[in-house]
Design brief:
A hairpin with a 3-residue loop joins strand 5 and strand 6. With 185 residues, this protein is of the alpha+beta class. It has a four-stranded mixed β-sheet with strand order 1-2-6-5. It has a two-stranded antiparallel ribbon with strand order 3-4. It contains seven helices and six strands; from the N terminus they run βαβαββαββαααα. It is elongated, with a radius of gyration of 23 Å. The protein has a single domain, classed as Rossmann fold. The model has no long low-confidence stretch (mean pLDDT 86).
């Protein structure tokens, strides 16, 4: 596509899954917009923390936190949480943030700035202490992910009809194993 081809671009549920290539995509959309062109982009944030991580949302602990990095696309692919402050700090280098609306996903309305930027320009951390707190927290999240996923799968399994129906059989099996381990006295 030619440079400056569009007045408006929308990216709905795109940045919710882009990890390493998120910033290059954003810069490509910036390149494709006409001067003062508009970008509407959604991202996951406060409404997804509890569901994805079993933890309450804390704006100060999330920047651009990548979750489920290696998750297959048939299971939803990687997930990316972003805080509004991080979007303002990083995306705001390339775009004027006109509005961030709280809907099911955060929805940002952005106007292209007349600037030339590189991936490194947009990725570079600010002096904001939340930048490094968010990175540390994302490492903890990634470390805890397997245990969180196991708990969720177990909950889903235990709430299934087959699990509830076979509950008496499992109880009988535990009793039989207990009796057998003590011997037949």
């Amino acid at each position: 596509m030619e440079h400056g081809s569009f007045d408006l671009i929308w990216a709905i549920s795109v940045f919710t899954h882009l990890t390493d290539n998120s910033i290059p995509w954003l810069l490509e959309l910036h390149r494709l917009l006409k001067p003062a062109g508009l970008l509407i982009a959604t991202y996951m944030g406060r409404w997804h923390s509890e569901h994805l991580l079993d933890e309450p949302w804390d704006e100060d602990r999330v920047g651009m936190n990548v979750l489920r990095y290696n998750q297959d696309w048939d299971r939803g692919g990687p997930m990316v949480l972003m805080s509004d402050w991080w979007v303002r700090a990083h995306w705001g280098r390339a775009f004027e943030i006109l509005e961030i609306a709280p809907v099911r996903q955060s929805c940002a309305l952005l106007r292209k700035r007349d600037v030339e930027l590189t991936t490194e320009d947009l990725e570079r951390p600010d002096d904001d202490p939340r930048e490094f707190a968010a990175l540390r927290h994302n490492l903890r999240q990634a470390w805890r992910e397997p245990a969180i996923e196991q708990r969720k799968l177990r909950r889903e399994y235990e709430e299934s009809l087959s699990w509830r129906i076979t509950r008496p059989l499992r109880a009988a099996g535990r009793l039989a194993r207990s009796v057998c381990s003590r011997g037949w006295r």
